[in-house]
Amino acid sequence: MELLPNSVEDFTSSEYWSNFFRSYGGENNRAFEWYGDFEVLRDLLVESLRTSGRSELYKRILHVGCGNSTLPAKLYDEGFKDITNIDFSSQVIDLMREKNKSKKGLEWICMDIEKDFGKYVDKEENLGNFDVIIDKGFLDAYLSDNTSKNSSSSKTKASDYLASSMRLLVPNGRYILVTLGQEYVAKALTMEFYNKGLDIIVEPLVEIKDSKFLPYYIEIINKKDTQSTNKTFFRFKGAGVDEIYTSEDQCIWTLAKRLKELSAMYWNNKYIGDFMPGEIKEYQLNIKESRNSFFITVYDTISKKKNKQLTVGLLVPIGEEQDWLYSTRKGFEEICNQAKCKRLIVISRLYSDSEKALKVSKEDILDEISKNISPLALKGSGRFPILTVGGDRNLNKKCIYSCDSKFCKQILVYDIEESGIEKRQMIFKSSPRLIQSEVVIQRKSPERLEFDYLSGLSNYYVGVVLVSSLILDTKNQDKKKNALILGLGGGILASILRKFYSKSILNISAIEIDQKVMNIAKDYFGFSENDVEVIITDALDYIDNSHSKIQDSLDYIIVDINSGSVNDSLMCPGVEFLSKGFVEKLILSLTNDGCIIYNISCRDTKRKEELFNEFGNMISAIEERTGNSKGLLLQSVETGEDEINELWIIKKETKDNIKKVRNFIIEKQLFISNQEGTSSEKCGKKDLWVKRFSNLK
């Protein structure tokens, strides 16, 4: 026969257990030990027995669901001579009585707990007269069946059994439960004891090396004085547990959750060194010395590529813990691909005081966590690198203003000093990885602040201005041009364009959905409404409602709008701004030489490629349908800053001139420095921009 039951009903069948022990023990009289033998439990049991119940050495012990365990005989040899053993298999009881007949004081009773335990408890010689009850695996089996036709519900069975057990105990007596801590067991303990004013101590039996699961040794103490409080608390103790949970009292209502977490962690740790593609494991690390806490995510790549590194760690920047890259399976896979590793360990800091956290150096953090996360690496990893993001800039920034927003959760303004240069940033909480606006600031005096829009420009701004020179050639310009910016942000781009092009040359309008963003642009980024017309509305609605009025009137359209979704790899713009209907309306709004620039920021390189291919097919279809005499040039340009950001450029151009314009845009010519120099014959418009840019600086 099989050693383990085929169904939960077998757990409540005395015939099954009689056959089980006969088959398992056989001629060798082997004992079957649930959740560890006596040697594993000895120190815990002896200590519990000596400190429980009555102070004298004499202890009266009840062993429930004894089976053919050697536990009673071993305790007898330790000096505990009064042990009553209960089981509902008469064959097992007869066998154990005969086997231990020389040990006077060991009593053996055949009993059906569900039917007869209450009567046993009510006997005068038993009620309140036991020092210790030992339940080693019995409760797990007893409550596992809630479907038997002849059985009460598990809740009723649990309540009756546990309440009766506590009635047997003397003051300071203990109910000792050895269990796997399944959720139904933890809930049964909670529901019965939450208002009894008991002490509960939980110790995981990590010494049982050959077990796939983690048993627990749980002591429930019948306190002498229960008048002070009727609430029941529990606490953990034992090797390794204090690194995960504190030893302080915890509310019993969290018991099921904590046991589930600990059991999952044990299972994960047992097999943590094995490579399991696509598996995600999560931990919380509490370091007592510094009182710092970390949330750890372990992910194994599904890629079959050969990777240079077995394991790589990554420290998440503060405030970006919910970003797509650091909180989703696709984000983890993207990092594995970039870091060329099989296993990624993502480390997020849990700080209640974010301002204090920003002052902590990354070196201190890395020193602190490196030794604690090494056991989470794949087998054979040895010392592995822990990567950081963005240098130390995230650790020195100061939040000077914040406000809530219904569009992006919260708007944050930071001042950052980096390599002696002070900058100001606008960040949306909905997209913490994306800098919405950034400008260099110069403090002329404590009261006077200047914004230097042309220093330290990102390649995005450089690219936008360079492409503008394709349209805004002032030498051959006979009328004022019109530019539309979708997404004002801090007004940096609008301010830069105004530095290059006066009002007589270029009319600039900006669409911004959030009045609060507009206010912050004026108050904290030096933006002036005198330079740019700002319309507070939804950009989608504006284009939809105004496209007939603005048709053929815009020379330059810039789409620079945050997606607003922390769970999307596409951070800028939202997918709705790449839809066919919207793009077609933008194209119809362009003049004969007009141009559209999209600021694209996407963390998933594969998705970005797919989006661009779909976008290209859509542009071709629009070109065929509109039947314009000019073609539509579509070109993507990496900004050179990382693999995340690109400019997507749509330009109306004659068929003969498309190749020339494309050559201007690609081959990194957008980002050649002033010193490299290019002849006016090769790239006259760029030289015009370089000269204009140099003069302005």
Automatic annotation (TrEMBL):
Species annotation: Cryptosporidium ubiquitum
> Which GO terms fall under molecular function for this chain's record?
methyltransferase activity
Q: What are the UniProt keywords, alphabetically?
A: Methyltransferase, Multifunctional enzyme, Transferase
Residue intervals of the Methyltransferase domain: 60-174
KW Transferase (keyword) present: yes
* Family classification: Belongs to the methyltransferase superfamily.
- Record carries keyword Methyltransferase: yes
Q: Which CDD domains match?
A: AdoMet_MTases
Q: What is this protein called?
A: SAM dependent methyltransferase
Q: Which GO terms describe its biological process?
A: methylation
